[in-house]
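REVIEWER CHECKLIST
Item 1: Sequence provided? yes
Item 2: Single chain? yes
Item 3: Sequence as submitted:
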Amino acid sequence: MSIDGQAELQKQSVQKLATAVTVRILNLNSSGNAITSGSGVIIQKQGNVYTLLTNLHVLQFADRYMIVTHDGLQYKPLLLSRSVQFGFGSNDMAIAQFQSSQQYEIAQIKTEPLQIGDRVFAAGFPIYQAHSLISTLNLGMQAFHFTEGRISILPAKSLAQGYQIGYSNDIVVGMSGGPIFDVSGFLVGINGRTKNRDPDFGGYTFSDGTEPSLMLLQQMLNASWGVPISTYLHFNSIRLNNSFRS
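Item 4: Structure as written out by the authors:
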């Protein structure tokens, strides 16, 4: 098989996985109607309880949510990680849980570091249809979007809110919290920021308060940004250690 043929098979395999493990998170108003949405990825199952990973900003702006899985079933969250117990410090990361007797696939987490040039895939549910302001909320899970790209920048220190994966994939509003996979289908991070954000709002300031050089800033502007899965692993390890000690 040619190299191009192998690459296409890898893409199809990861896309099938992404379709199965990526969820849509609906933000509901007081009447129970969806007003906006984000994305998430299923990372764990214990009994009938599934845990998903998303961005904190996906869960910050509504009091009620609904989790929608790839089969169109809707679940009320059992837990949202806005509590201190399940926090991720100042990082734009959060978890939610739902209960189901259905069998859903689980994303496998990669522990090895990424490299510049690594091929990656990003998935999620855009809020708007392509090149328009027409909502996709009425499309449900048909709005699923899958993109291919490569790791373009890996700064030694993270940007504010834990962003440390710069990649060439085009992501859009609504894909926040959705998964970033490597070519083998391992979860390496979650989407969070689109390309070409206004630098005057501090989106490209490092977590220690320093600013990038103009040359580095231009690279940053040309990249989408995600929070690495290592952030989840770090804080999850702390929680497990604290639980063991108590």
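Item 5: Key structural point noted by reviewer: The domain at 108-233 is CATH 2.40.10.10 (Thrombin, subunit H).
Item 6: Recommendation: ____
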